[in-house]
Amino acid sequence: MELKREFTNIIRFILEDCTPPLIRDIPLFNTLLSILSGMNLKKCRQLRIDIPNLTPEKIKSFYRDFPRIQEEMDNSRKCVEQIISNVSGQSLCDVGCGTGYLLNQISLHTPIDRLVGLDFTEHEEWKSLHHLQFLKGDILTLPFKDGEFDTVVCTHILEHILDIRAAIQELRRLYSDKLIIVVPRERESIWSLNPHFHYFPYEHSFLKHMLPLPSKWGIKRIGRDYLYVEDKKATPIAARHNS
Predict the structure, then answer these.
(1) CA–CA separation, 159 vs 53, rounded Å?
(2) Helix, strand, or coil here: 21?
(3) Looking at domain 1-243, does it have CATH number 3.40.50.1980?
(4) Where are the domains of the chain?
(5) What are 22-43's pLDDT values in tens digits?
(6) CA quadruple 172, 144, 105, 151: dihedral sign
(7) What burial letters (b/e) apply to 27-43, b meaning 16+ CB within 10 Å?
(8) Where are the beta strands (DSSP E) in the chain?
(9) What pLDDT, in 10s, does the model give residues 48-86?
(10) Per the omega criterion (within 30 degrees of 0), is the bond before 184 cis?
(11) Is residue 146 very low, low, confident or very high in pLDDT (cuts 50, 70, 90)?
């Protein structure tokens, strides 16, 4: 069963912020969560335990087979609104676009000439979005030239990437105007409901990976997510900034 982000955020608040780690890490408690959620939490746990031996092929295979729990996309409506308000220029690439839902929402609200989505696997939903361009590719080796897109968007992807610094370097290489990143505000747990490698409970938990920061940047908490914006030409819109 797929759920809206706003509803899963309530569940995450209860499990991450209200449930003490002493209870959260009890195997029996997580067996019950696995039954209720329909997700194999032992498989998520094993993914993190196996980090020293993981290969790119094993990681891709895991995520291909892992069930989706979010309806439509991982972003809340408020996040989508903020992403759209920060878009600029006439070309945009959504790295880790999934089904293309966010990219389509951007196309409906912004007059952009070129909209490209890239994901590590193809999705059936791409076939019905004929006005958008989709490619299969790897975030660590993006098949584009330097500065090819005015705006680059990457939402709920970096927490899944082991070599997060290399991924950030590729995203920065790709954009000429704005970089928009969304990551979940989440506390680490070996039994986490999400198969993530990185956790960002605080702003600095994410920002340390973005160092050195550019002259124009901003970060804003939206519910249980962080919206980060880099802007090469102006101050980010609707985000706390530093310059």
Answers:
(1) 18
(2) helix
(3) no
(4) 1-243
(5) 787 888 877 887 777 677 788 8
(6) positive
(7) eebbeebbeebebebee
(8) 91-95, 114-119, 133-136, 149-155, 175-184, 217-222, 225-231, 240-242
(9) 899 999 998 899 888 888 776 555 667 889 999 999 999
(10) no
(11) very high
> Which of 197, 205, 210, 208 is CA-nearest to residue 225?
205
Query: Does residue 2 have a pLDDT over 70?
Result: no
Residues 6+ positions from 96 with CB-CB distance below 8 Å: 118, 119, 120, 139, 154, 155, 156, 157
**pLDDT of res. 222:** 94
Cα(120)–Cα(98) distance, integer angstroms: 9
Q: Can you tell me whether residue 72 is helix, strand or coil?
A: coil
**109 phi and psi angles, rounded to 5 deg:** -120, -5
CA atoms within 13 A on the CB side of 141: 3
- As a whole number, the mean pLDDT across the chain is 87
SS3 label, residue 150:
strand
**Tens-digit pLDDT profile for residues 222-237:** 989 999 999 987 655 4
Mean pLDDT, residues 89-97: 97
Q: What's the predicted TM-score (pTM) here?
A: 0.85
pLDDT at 1 over 50: no
Q: Are 31 and 180 in contact (CB under 8 A)?
A: no
Encoding tokens for residue 227? Answer: 């919206």
Q: Which of 129, 146, 145, 139 is nearest to 94 (CA)?
A: 139
Tokens of 240: 């706390």
